[in-house]
Description:
The chain is α+β, with helices and mostly antiparallel strands. It is 25% helix and 12% strand.
Amino acid sequence: MPQHRVHRAHIRAMDEFDGRRIEDRMHYCCVPNGCERMYSDPVISDDPGDAVRVICNNERCNQAMWMHSDCFAMWEDHVLTYLRSCGRARSWSEKQRLQNLWTKKGYDLAYKACDCKCGKGHIRKDLDYIPPQSDERKQHKKNKAKMNMVRQQVPSKNHVSHEEHMRARSNSNAGLFQHDLFSPKNMPRPQLRVRTSSFGSTGSSPPSSAGTPPVTPGAGAGKKSQFDFFLDPEQAATGNMFLRRMDYRAFNVLPRHQQNPYHIKMEDEGPYGNDEIRCFVLSNLSSNKVTVVRCVCCSVDLPVFDRYPLIDGTFFLSPMRYNTDLQVLSDHRHLYLNAVCMRCLQGSNAVRCQACKKQWSGETLILGTMYTYDIFAPMPCCAFRMTCKGCRRPILDPGVVLNFYSDYSKLFECPSCKRRDYHFIKPLSDVFICK
């Protein structure tokens, strides 16, 4: 029998043993602008390597499945270039554009640059896909486990410091991968961190731990201590009034596709400990001795944490005083620092418009951070929410949409009564029905 026939028979036997043909497991790179090695380097679904999984919104599409990692990177840069010129994305930072690109918040703006090769749909990165572990990575874990067993049997002088260093590196990488976000190995260690002196845009500074004696609440002979607002004696000793988040179990109520760093703020934007938003929030809260805030919708208490995610929800600034007296100075304006819990943002606690009964949703907002505008004002659902606070006549013509979400939190002059006010920001009791 000829050699090539023996080889084909062997492949056919392997396919029958596996139950699937090789053609069913082999896919070609579907990058829209074409791939030079599409046929010479197909992707095998059983072992895709570093290939990226993509999906098409056309149910009958037979083109979109996989892209080579380098092809996907070049195509993603093309989509990001398009996103930079789209509406509200123009005011985002590069990191925000990259974080929001494949979520609903960014993809709704950039989908026109994501045409599929099938010609009838648009493709996007599959965020639910978890790449399988390669054999090398599995073997590396086995070798690492053996090394740990040897270290336990033969103690050394640097053993403890080395283990502490490895744990610190593991904690610093928490949240970088979607499937490792809630892994126990990436949970922060149960200890309090001494906060460094930093300041936000208000110019006020949080209490520094430098030179602070270990004073406990109520210390002294009947004299009230300046540290009585701390949550426990250990926090008073370190000078840190905010909680340290021990795990991320609170976010398990989110859908699976939202349990990732794209939807949850996990790390600082700037150098370690110098993030402008985090410093702004914590410095204002600490100067007012506030460690717990309330949701403006359901009034549930939300403890504040010293690192991202700051709360189990999100902060936002507004000229409207909802249920807080915490006034801050931002961009030379006096605004109120408000908060909404995660359940109200996700729609578990229904917040509906009184006029059209449409439910308000904040599920596209990033959790654990702060927005510099009123999150209830953008994208009014009906004409009732676009009326003047005084004469109740329309402020804008029907169909007019402002360029940025923050524009709805600015002062407008009513064309009818000439009243100048924040017309799109109204008390929740006047606009919504909160259950």
